[in-house]
Amino acid sequence: MFETEERGSKSDRTRARISAAAIDSFTTRGYTDTTMRSIAEQAGVSVGNAYYYFPSKEHLVQALYEQVQREHEHLARERLEGVTALVDRLRTVYLSGLDALAPYRAVAPGFLTAMIPPDSPLNPLSTESSPARDTTVALFRDAVEGAQHRLPDDVVAPLPEALLVGHLALVLRWTYDQSPDQTNTRTLLATGLRLLALALPFVRVPGVHSAVRDLLVQVAEVRS
User: Which domain holds residue 40?
Assistant: First the structure.
């Protein structure tokens, strides 16, 4: 979650208090019905002060999005230590992402509604979301390049972007997954990774190689 009030400077504590109030309001009122005024009142600050730290509630969501990605990166890099198999490294990154999101599950559906429009600044593929998105792509790139299994360079190049698209699809499934502990989402991931493990030995086969490369390029282009 956001840093607690006891940590950092007075400015940091005020920012954290506003952020915490926003999360609580998003959870109880819903994203649409939450206003900057209601957030300010709950945080015990003036409306002007709230706007000083966050020009809009969209900026609050962006701050949360970026923090979740930092938590995702921290968890994944810790867990990747000593893991060398490509499929295991990708599993680690994907599951770490779900674990980082877990504390915010209650507000995820409301955020998703605001994120879906292509022109929304909250859309994970928007220009405004690029810092958080770039963090995730870099994490997938490190997972691929640090694996013992070496892939052709022209497959490695588009792969991190394609894996990001897979991550976003997995988060979408997780958001609406009503199974206990979102077991269905984790089963979907496990099935996809099993298929990947079966396909890896054939990536260098002529014909298969070019088809895989072209598919990854097309999937990666979803970002643009």
Answer: 8-55
